[in-house]
From TrEMBL:
It comes from the Bacteria. It comes from Belliella kenyensis. Pfam families: DUF2256 (PF10013). This is DUF2256 domain-containing protein.
């Protein structure tokens, strides 16, 4: 699959889009944050 056709989500912490990765293949539905840094800073979500 070409990169441009991969599923995308928006990180609730940094508001940046991120694309599907092979390591998330089995749990893509449960992936919320784009990185470990954002996951650690989830209490700093911008509304």
């Amino acid at each position: 699959m070409k990169k441009q056709f991969l599923p995308k989500k928006v990180c609730p912490v940094c508001n940046r889009p991120f694309s599907w990765r092979k390591k998330w293949e089995k749990n893509w539905e449960s992936v919320i944050y784009c990185s470990k840094k954002c996951k650690a800073n989830k209490h700093e979500q911008k509304n």
